[in-house]
Amino acid sequence: MIISTSVLANPSENFYIEDEEIFDDWDICRTRGTQQDGFFQFLSERDFRPAIAFESLGENVGNAYQIGQGYTADYPYINQRAEQIFIYARDKIRYSSDEEQFGFSEFAQNADELIETISQEGLTYGDCEDYAVLLAIMFKGAALRSAIALVPGHAAALVHLPEYTRANRVISLDGESGWIWAEATGGKNHLGWMPEQFINDRVSAYEITGEIITAPEQHNKLPTVVTQKGGNRGFQISPFFIVLLLMWLIPLFLKRR
Asked: φ, ψ for residue 243 (rounded to 5)?
């Protein structure tokens, strides 16, 4: 199976196919978020570890993190710095489903792949987890604490801004308040706005630290390439997040029986 393209570049350059799924240099499945090798590495029914984010951290630091670092000098006030990073992601990414973009029901991009396309074409396309990953890495590079958050059917980034006053909801993570929702999927969104349908949902979140993921030295896999076809803006729920929603609802249903 060969999928023609030329746009996805650093840091993963050797995608391969196994059991009809697409994997990258780090053996992370890009076409599935669930299970131990999925891009969001579900460890239990509600716990996850966004492994794809670690492809742009530690020894793998690339342009996304470094662009975030550049905001520290230009914007010494952290609230303004976070807002400018948010605006960058909001304005440089156009919302598109993975089916429209890649022909897969799910395909996650890492932060440096998004930046690579932006540098080449001026903008890129992605869905909610792509926005979340890029924002989390850029916030981290800009010396801001960040996290990736999941609610049923959706992903977003969080940034720790205890004195930020423009948010319609302030989130507590592990008992610590001051976390602000970063929902960049709409062209008119502002930092701190959380969609009304998610305000009362339970938020699962994972703070981004300097965790390291190491690529295997070599693969004995047949390489493939992935086409980015472009896409249309909109707001859609991917199959991965439908699975997440079902995982949350089934225990509640069983308790009521």
From this structure: -60, -45
Q: Are 55 and 26 in contact (CB under 8 A)?
A: yes
Tell me, letter by letter, the H, E, C secondary structure of 99-119: HHHHCCCCCCCCHHHHHHHHH
- List of residues 6+ apart from 146 with CB closer than 8 A: 135, 136, 137, 139, 140, 157, 158, 159, 160, 207, 208
Find the DSSP H helices in 6-154: 63-74, 78-92, 98-102, 111-121, 128-141
Q: In 10 A of CB 99, how many CB atoms?
A: 17
List of residues 6+ apart from 229 with CB closer than 8 A: 100, 101, 102, 103
pTM score of the predicted model: 0.85
Q: What is the mean pLDDT of each run of 10 residues along the chain (257 residues)?
A: 34 84 94 94 81 94 96 97 98 95 93 95 96 98 97 95 97 96 97 96 93 78 68 46 54 55
